[in-house]
Amino acid sequence: MGFGLDSLRRGAGLLLSAALLAAAAWGQAGVPCSSCHEEQAKALPSSTHAVLDCAACHIKHETFPHPAGMPAPECAQCHSRVAQDDALGVHGQARRAGNAAAPDCAVCHGDVHQALKPTSPQFRASVPQTCGMCHSDVAEQYQASVHGKALQAGNLNAPLCTDCHGEHAILPHRQTASPVHPSHIRETCGRCHGDLRLSRRFGLPSHVVVSFDASFHGLASRAGSQTVANCASCHGYHNILPSSDPASSIHPKNLPETCGKCHPGAGTRFSLGPIHWQEGNREPAGVAWVRRLYLGLIPLVVGLMFLHNLADWIRKLYRWRIRPDAEALRLAGMMRLARAAARGGEIRMYPLERVQHVLLMVSFMVLVWTGFALKYPDQWWARPLLIWEHVFPVRGTIHRVAGGVMIGVALMHVFTLVFSRRLREHWLELRPRAGDATEGILNLAWLLGLRKTKPRLSAHGYVEKAEYWAVVWGTAIMALTGIALWAVNFTLRWLPKSWLDVAIAIHFYEAVLATLSILVWHFYFVIFDPEVYPMDSAWLTGRSVRLRETHPHAHKTQNPSGEEHER
């Protein structure tokens, strides 16, 4: 009996051990995790991790029972790039600094078994609330903004916190790599407002980014300025409201305050008018008139200059190089030059006039370079001026200095005409005469072959007078408009903004006209004219190498040696 009981007990122990071993073997062979982890199993199908097996994250899951003290899976083992970005961001830096409350993956994405796809509507709709757990004030402003209201209305394309600040590599706005750093605001906002398809889809203005890029603010920003106003400077950061909202920073009644942050007094006397406008689209009426005028005037004037000089060059090329007696003509011309040099030659520019010309020439070339570099900062010839633009406004400073020199030369010229009789008498030869226009028309007709005989030309004829009075006109226009732009705060305080827009348009188009006129008209007569090539030395020596013809209006003057000659 005793033997039987002991045997029974030993048999039961063996059966129990066998059952446990069998159960363990069965679990290792495929017992589903959901049989024990029911809650996680229910949440996993809707998670972004639903495509993964438990084994992908949980080590030694096949050991049954599971070993105690096993570390939780790390997101970095699959999302290494995201982990690197997070470590560089403000949240990762805060955690390393000992801030235990700084958010990690689980705070933003939730439990790993419940983590939604970042592109899912549920996840995008929850982003403001998630960020608002720490940034409650900002979240409230966002919810009341145009972006927040659009999201609440079901527009999942509306910008979220992560669209502007980034998702994991979130950096402080003062760091240059941050997408909300002043140097990147335009690109960040432009991802939506510069997208034509999004603009059409949601009825947004499609020209705001283009018009900003063409403005002073946009051009300075593209050149590297970090202090110039950007989108957020005027529209706000999180509390962006439509211009129709009285609380908006761009509401008409709030524009003086908004613009006054940089331009004190702007808009206090007159309405500032449209800010975002482009050529041909909502542009001020005055700008439209200026644009039409110059777009007609520039081709007409420069085209006539080019036609005149091309015809002159062809005739002189034939006369001095192709005609059978060209060599004899050249020798005769050289002899005339030699005789003129022996007599001292005609004084075309006195020493003080040559000084003024050099100052005018240098300041004009600097103005052209820096001025067009301000307008076209992306061009290769503007790059040398942009090296220090992020710390100092090099282009604008040099441009204003050169402008001051040009204005100073103009005042010096007026001063010398008032107080120097010799210079005044010399200048009187450039007074417009009734016959100047006739002389120019007849000479152009002869150059084009419409007239058989060449007309008599004055020593200071339509060529020189056109140059001189164009410089006078251009200098006055550029000085007036340039001063209005230079003193922008004064202009915006006392005049309507549309006047400033008109001044900008005139300043630009007049600069284009002046530059082309110098290249086509002035450079031809002092450099490329076969009669003076390679250069008329009057601006250096005061005496021209050009062969002057006698004419009915010529009069006698004395050169410094006391000899008379024809002018």
Entry summary:
The chain is an all-alpha fold and 567 residues long. Helix content is 57%, strand content 1%. The chain has a two-stranded antiparallel sheet with strand order 1-2.
* Mean of pLDDT: 86
Instruction: Output the number of helix runs.
Output: 25
Alpha carbon gyration radius:
40 Å
Structural class assignment: mainly alpha
CATH architecture of the largest domain: Up-down Bundle
Termini separation comes to 155 Å
CATH topology name of the largest domain, in short, is: Fumarate Reductase Cytochrome B subunit
Helix content: 55-70%
CATH superfamily of the largest domain: Transmembrane di-heme cytochromes, Chain C
* Helix-strand topology string: HHHHHHHHHHHHHHHHHHHHHHHHHEE
Principal-axes shape call: elongated
Topology, number of strands: 2
Q: Determine the strand fraction and express it as a percent band.
A: under 5%
Low-confidence stretches: 16-29, 550-567
Largest sheet strand order: 1-2
**Sheet having the most strands:** 2 strands, antiparallel
Describe the structure.
The radius of gyration is 40 Å and the shape is elongated. The protein is mostly helical and 567 residues long. Strands 1-2 form a two-stranded antiparallel ribbon. Helix content is 57%, strand content 1%. The N and C termini lie far apart (155 Å). The protein folds into 3 domains: 118-170, no CATH class; 183-279, no CATH class; 285-566, Transmembrane di-heme cytochromes, Chain C (Fumarate Reductase Cytochrome B subunit). β1 and β2 form a beta hairpin. The protein contains 25 helices and 2 strands. Residues 16-29 and 550-567 have low confidence and may be disordered. α18 runs antiparallel to α19, α19 packs across α22 (462-486) and α22 packs across α23.
